[in-house]
Amino acid sequence: MSDVNSPVARLANVVSRWRNEFPYHWDADDLVSRRELLNFTVYTSGALFAATALLTVLGLIERPAALPAQPIVPIDQIVEGKPIYFRYPGPDDEAVLLKLPNRGLVAYSQKCTHLSCAVYYQAVQARLFCPCHEGVFDPVTGDPVAGPPQRPLPRIILQQRGNLIYAVGRQP
């Protein structure tokens, strides 16, 4: 009689448990060969790469946007260093107009290019600041100077018509 604690008995017990937990037989191993699995992996990766490349190209294609001219504020109500917040081009798109010392008027989208948080002008530090992740933008150019944002703020094109300042378009 064999001992239940003998190495052979323990090995037989492990093998029988393994067969119950993994009930596939060796002849079922031929259903998918390694070559077929590798081909499937390569073709799937290629398809994902092609889809990503296509989405990148579509994202780079500039769509000419015919944005309506929108009055913002009379020129005599603009104070140097004091921001004027307005909505452009749509009612949900926030923007900021600034009169900078010795630079004139500039306007930017108020949406941070990092995670779309609102950007505010801080006159004391002379900067556009995103409080979400402490992103800082140069108010003259809209370029990021600190924090995680990598892209500049979209600039809003301004035009003076008579006594009014109008937003007439956007630069990416």
CATH topology of the largest domain: Rieske Iron-sulfur Protein
Instruction: Let me know the average pLDDT.
Output: 85
Total number of beta strands: 10
Q: Identify the overall geometry.
A: elongated
Question: Helical residue percent?
Answer: 10-25%
Our measurement of the CA-to-CA distance between the termini, rounded to an integer number of angstroms, reads 85 Å
Largest sheet: 4 strands, antiparallel
Number of helices: 2
| The first-level CATH class name of the largest domain | Mainly Beta
Tally of distinct domains: 2
SSE topology string: HHEEEEEEEEEE
Q: What percent of residues are in strands?
A: 25-35%
**Low-pLDDT residue intervals, each spanning 5 or more residues:** none
Give me the CATH superfamily of the largest domain.
Rieske [2Fe-2S] iron-sulphur domain
Structural class: alpha+beta
- Rg, nearest Å: 32 Å
Note down, in words, how this protein is organized:
The structure is a single chain. This protein is α+β, with helices and mostly antiparallel strands and 172 residues long. It folds into 2 domains: 7-60; 70-171, Rieske Iron-sulfur Protein, CATH 2.102.10.10. It has helices at 7-21, 34-60; strands at 70-74, 84-87, 94-100, 104-109, 120-122, 127-130, 135-137, 144-146, 155-161, 164-171. Strands 5-6-7-8 form a 4-stranded antiparallel β-sheet, with no helix packed on it. Strands 1-10-9 form a 3-stranded antiparallel β-sheet, with no helix packed on it. Strand 5 and strand 6 form a beta hairpin. The radius of gyration is 32 Å and the shape is elongated. The mean pLDDT is 85.
